[in-house]
Amino acid sequence: MLTFQADDDDRRPRVVVLEHHERVRLGALASTLEEHSRLRVLRGYADPARGRLEIEELIASGGYDGLIALGSPVGVYDADHLPYLQDSLRLMSDALRREAPVLGLCFGSQMLAHLAGARVFPGSERGLAPEVGYFPLRVTEAGATDPVMTIFADPPPVLFWHRDTHDLPRDGVRLAATDLYATSAFRLGRWAYGLQFHLETTADLMPVWVAQSPLPAEAGVDTHMILEEAARFEVVVKERGARLATLFTTWAAEFARGSRRP
Hints:
This protein is about 35% helix and about 20% strand. By secondary structure, it is of the alpha/beta class. Helix 1 (about 30-35) packs parallel to helix 9 (about 235-260) and helix 2 (about 50-60) packs parallel to helix 3 (about 85-100).
């Protein structure tokens, strides 16, 4: 039987997190989510059989009120030979069908775009280099009044760490771009968001990213500068993460009140 974070307060919403790699964690989102929701982190990459059983139970029961999908060093197009990615896509598809709040970060954004019918592809197909480091967002007119994008509209840049990208889904609303990539954030419906940037990554996680990921070398960026910027923006990252997690759990609670619990 699938269980959420133990707590006697049944009024808190149930939030499921799809973790796709051990170095890509909740980071700046974690403490607020743990406080304001009953949290369940699924790690299908570590135990695919268990992950599949958990996701099948969630889909059968509808026993969750919000879904967060984290990043991955692989692509959506790798799902054919990585069954745990297929399972993640199935759960996100179920969340969209139920119109539950969804937050997709980097790879999670690509998952959301894929399920909404947009093409996901390596940026190199269109002559785009990997986007690695801290870059400012160019918020669109629609993004200027969006409740999520208002959190990130201030000048401090956000962390990008990707080589893949996606087209804007036909029913999607573009919320932000960068100088290099056309879609850095989009929304589907009321509260399904794809954010291509890593708002969750705190400075303590960055040394492992720098050491293990091939992307900095591919992008030709100075890893020492990235580590310095991670330390410089740490307070902003944590403050923004807490605000977004608070907003997301508020939506999940609203969804829970409006849905029938199994």
